[in-house]
Design a protein that fits this description.
Layout (H helix, E strand, L loop, with lengths): L1 H9 L1 H13 L24 H21 L8 H28 L9 H14 L11 H24 L8
Helix pairs in contact: 2-3, 2-4, 3-4, 4-5
């Protein structure tokens, strides 16, 4: 049971970073309205500078609070865990933007559902934290747990955000 709790607590900076731009985002688009030679936007209007920064800060803050009260077994010290929270959050926002970039390259319209939107933020966050986490984090069952939980929670939370009027589409 403690292992599942550890895995859930590990995900806090990732999920907070990924969800925060829905409430805290807006403003100038991250790609500054630029397009590539194919005429498609680099990222689209849904990825904003404020959302990227707010997501990174919110996830880091949440992970920092956790590091004050609960040392995860994947990190050797609270300071490393706090540092990892930043990289998890920054990786989450980078992965979310990368998923949007790939979506544009595949000509999937803005606001349309796309499987990489569901998992790219998780994958990049896990890659960004490699220098800080022990190998125990990357056991296949842990990775499978992260993937399955994200494939369930991401669409569910997007649906709920849509019903609450925070998002214009349920994905």
């Amino acid at each position: 049971m403690n292992q599942i709790l550890d895995l859930l607590i590990f995900l806090i900076p990732i999920y907070i970073a990924n969800s925060s731009p829905v409430v805290l985002g807006g403003g100038a688009p991250l790609d500054l309205d630029n397009t590539l030679p194919d005429g498609e936007r680099i990222l689209g209007n849904g990825k904003t500078v404020r959302g990227f920064v707010a997501g990174t800060l919110a996830g880091t803050f949440a992970g920092g609070l956790v590091s004050l009260v609960y040392l995860l077994p994947f990190f050797p010290s609270p300071l490393i865990q706090f540092t990892a929270a930043f990289f998890l959050s920054f990786g989450t926002m980078t992965g979310d933007a990368l998923g949007s970039f790939m979506k544009r390259r595949m000509h999937v319209g803005s606001g349309r559902p796309f499987v990489l939107d569901t998992i790219m933020f998780l994958i990049v966050a896990l890659v960004f934290v490699v220098p800080f986490a022990s190998a125990a984090l990357y056991q296949p069952l842990n990775l499978l747990f992260f993937l399955i939980l994200t494939l369930i929670l991401h669409p569910l939370t997007n649906y709920l955000a849509n019903k609450a009027g925070l998002k214009s589409v349920p994905w």
